[in-house]
Amino acid sequence: MTNKFFTLMTGFFLFASQALSADDADAMPPRDQGMWQTFIMVSIALIFFYFILMRPEQKRRKAMEDQRNSLKKGDRVNAMGILGTVLRVQEQTVILKMYDGAKIEVLKNAITDVIPGSDDDVKKAEKEEKNLPPVA
Fold it and tell me: SS3 for 81?
């Protein structure tokens, strides 16, 4: 077993030494050409990452921010898995009415989905808002 191992290793080292002692003209490309190829490949990778990863994420964030800014009374929202109807929209927060009648205040940034409300929902939200304390 060890004899086969030494035979294989000797053959590998002989092959490697012949490959390393090849002519210098065939061994490596000129330094200028290698740098340009590297620069082009890095540029292509950066462009790829921008258009495939970063640009769609920017578009998604902008669409979500526009959706949060267009919130109005009566809209149904999903905030971290909590479903509710918008009663009041403030600068940084939104007051939601839950299914059981409870009211909670959540950050606008926590809202992940907005379903526009109907006219009936807006009327119900205005009626409920009268029962809320005034904004400080």
Answer: coil
Is-contact 83 74, C-beta < 8 A?
no
Return d(Cα 31, Cα 129) in angstroms, integer: 73
Interior/surface letters 106-134, b for 16+ CB within 10 angstroms, e for the rest: bebeebeebeebeeebbebbeebeeeeee
pTM of the model: 0.57
The Cα–Cα gap between 67 and 80 comes to 16
Q: Is the pLDDT assigned to residue 28 strictly greater than 90?
A: no
Which secondary-structure segment (H or E) carries 51? none
pLDDT in tens, 40-59: 999 999 999 999 989 999 99
